[in-house]
Every structure is written in C-alpha cells, then in structure tokens.
Amino acid sequence: MEYRILGIDPGVTGAFAGIVIKDGLIEKIDMWDMPLVKIKTGKNEVDPLGVLEIILTFEADHVFIEKAQPMARFGKKQGVASTGGYMKGYGILIGLLVSQSEFFPYTEVTPQAWKKVMLSEVGMDKTASRKRAEEVYSGVKFPLVKDHNKAEALLIGIYGRMVLGW
C-alpha cells in the first residue's frame, strides 16, 4: 500500500515536504521552497499558482500544515507588516487547501503539538529541527541554517504520518 503525505511549513521562507510511504516505509521524500512572487513594493509574497502546482503535482493522500500563530520572536514582538504578510500567506495556503480538500484532505497542527512529539528530546530551535529531521530520515541532509524550513516541513509530515498511523 502506498500513502502520500505533504507537510507544509507556512510563511514566505516556508517549505513543503512530500513523503511517499510504501509498505510502511518511507520510500521517497521531495522538498520544495515556498513559491514566491515579487510584488510592486519589491517584497516577496506566497505565489498562489506555484503553491497550487505543488499541491496538484504531489497528489497527497493527506496534507498537514502548521497552524499560523503570530507571536513574539527572539524576545521581540512580531511587527505589524511582518505579521500581516505571514497571515496573508497562510490564508493563501489554507484557501488553496480548502479548494482542493475534496481530493486532498488537510489538517492544521499547532507548532506546540508537532514540536512536543518531534523535538522534545533535542530542543526546539532551528538547529534542533535540522538535526532531528536528519535523524528521522537519514536520506536527507540540511547543512544550511536556511534549510530549517524544509526540515520543519518534513517533521510536520512525519508527525502527520504518526497521527494517521501510516
């Protein structure tokens, strides 16, 4: 039996991880950076068509997306513009998932829920996410600090696999 799970770490620097499970084992992992489009102000935003292409191409049996939560980062509160952009991107992702949910059901998962399961033994920072993702699936490496989004998308997908019992 083959199952396909798509894990999504939302945000402009987010990522997708497609996990193919065959006969109970991870057979293949595909990863994508968040597709972006440059807007008039020169800033990047989530590209809806790029996201839709990933969702339709991967054909997941189930999608797990980290639930957006504006929060304090690094001891500072998130700025209004930063929060607005993050929430707009998240809205685009949820809108596209809802539009395709007849074919690809999805589940929102809080960062606290998946991190408690996936990172409890190694810490909760970005380095821990990269390290843990490499441990969970030795076929991938995350050498760059910026790879933490791909690592977190993978961990969200692996968490989803555990939730579904696949």
Walkthrough of the structure:
This protein is an alpha/beta fold and 166 residues long. The chain has one domain (2-164): Nucleotidyltransferase, domain 5, CATH 3.30.420.10. It contains five helices and nine strands. It has helices spanning 48-58, 80-100, 111-118, 126-136, 148-164; strands at 2-9, 15-22, 25-33, 36-38, 44-46, 62-66, 72-73, 76-77, 106-109. The strands form three sheets. Strands 3-2-1-6-9 form a five-stranded mixed sheet. The protein has a two-stranded antiparallel ribbon with strand order 4-5. A two-stranded antiparallel sheet has the order 7-8. Strand 1 (2-9) and strand 2 form a beta hairpin. Helix 1 (48-58) runs parallel beside helix 2 (80-100), helix 3 crosses helix 5 and helix 4 packs across helix 5 (148-164). It is globular and about 45 Å long. 33% of the residues are buried.
